[in-house]
Amino acid sequence: MPELPEVETIKRTLTPCLREQKIARVEVYHPGVIAAPDPETFSRLLAGRIITGLDRRGKYLLVHLSGEYCLVVHLRMTGRLVFTEGAAPLAPHTHVVFSLAGGPSLRFVDTRRFGRLYLAAKTEVETLPGLRDLGPEPLDPAFDALALAAILAGRRRPIKQVLLDQRLVAGIGNIYADEMLFAAGIDPRRPAASLNHEEVARLRGAMQRVLEQGIANRGTSIRDYVDGSGRQGSNQEHLQVYGRTGRPCPRCGQPLERVRLGGRSTHFCPRCQV
DNA sequence: ACAATTACCTGTATGC
DNA sequence: TGCATACAGGTAATTG
Question: Is the N or the C terminus of chain A less surrounded, counting Cβ atoms within 10 Å?
Answer without folding.
Answer: C
